[in-house]
Amino acid sequence: MTDPWVALEPGADPAERVRVLRRAHETFTEVGTVPQPVRAVVADSWRRSARAGVGPDGTACVELADGDLGAYRAEHPLARVMPLFRELLGTFAADGEHLLAVCDAHGRLLWVEGHPTTRRRAVGMNFVPGARWAETAVGTNAPGTAVAVDRPVQVFAAEHFIRQVQPWTCAAAPVHDPRTGRVLGAVDITGGDGLAHPHSLGFVQAVARAAESHLALLAPPVPASDTPELSALGRDEAQLLRGGRRIRLSRRHSEILVLLARHPEGLTGDELLCALYEDESVTPVTLRAELARLRRILGPGLLGSRPYRLTVPVESDVAVVERRLETGAVTGAAAAYTGPLLPGSQAPAVVRLRRRLADGLRTALIARRDPDLLADWAHAPWGEDDLDVWRALAAVRPTAAVRSRLAALESELSAPSALSARPALSARPSRPAWERRPQR
């Protein structure tokens, strides 16, 4: 197969592939191993689904309904491109007896439209507006997996983790904010086996790109600012916006800029060495070379020396979250927190800052007891194994899905023997979930 994101290679027999996948699915749910020919993207998704406590006989939970759903959809950025989605995908969905679906970044379905008969069938598995179809809720599926891995993806038949969904095939692509690059949600086409074709994946990806272009046209122009803006949350490579120019930084340069932005007074070479490197054998020459490369990338007039410092104030998303927490603006802090700080970084000072920021925010969320804020954290990749947050969420929103996930987490903690016996289904990561790399 030339494209691992396409479900069926040319010439494959769909019926035979379904039989093979069903046997593979049963093997995984029984013993925790993934046999061939399950694609790597699906195998990884099955493992994530199992770690999240999803059962193969589960179903989606409707979290938003009626007025709550209407208000949320009206304010969501993707509402502005729904006419475009309908124009490009609506007729295709209706004529082919498929469904057009759009979800948010947490996998909640916002719109489900298309052929009336197909919509009625989809109601049986709660593929309806307001239902959560994130991987952590219902396992492998195209819209949920697309936002989890930030890639267009097809899911064919028994590649779905939940058996109830296995008669369906779907293709979805994430849609990004054209200014920040953040995932806003995904656009999906769901129907029968005929969608397991490279054209459906390419089509939905083209629609997602068209939506991003349309959003860029609708967005007001960003005024040039004298204050550079550093975005480092939820990404391994920070981005600096300076005078309308976007600069993508390497991981090491990202670490340096994050630390210098926090220390406007500057840092000596020795202080930077201790902050950046666990290995004490790293020499000052290595650091000076990194700083010289960074100075060339940033351009003149931003990076000073003796001590190393930023010569103008730099606004960072880390500082925004910290300021809002300090003033008690928990909702605003949660909105600005788009993921762990440089999650792949092992620089000692960055690790400490990453943990302090996440711990401060989650503590504030638990104290606030707002069910929507807690749910957003718990269903994010960094919160899916956060036992304290799930307990707080269960106290204020004790739905069956929340209680089930909490029970699974508590069972994992209390049963180490079961943990070692079925590693693929119940093993938890050695690091906190919020400290793991995001799926980007």
UniProtKB/TrEMBL annotation:
Cited SMART domains: Trans_reg_C (SM00862)
UniProt entry keywords in alphabetical sequence: DNA-binding, Transcription, Transcription regulation
Transcription keyword on record: yes
Keyword Transcription: yes
GO biological process entries: phosphorelay signal transduction system; regulation of DNA-templated transcription
Domain OmpR/PhoB-type: 244-310
GO terms, molecular function: DNA binding
Pfam families in the cross-refs: GAF
Disordered: annotated segments: 412-440
Record field: compositional bias (Low complexity): 412-432
Name the UniProt record assigns to this protein: Transcriptional regulator
UniProt organism field: Streptomyces regalis
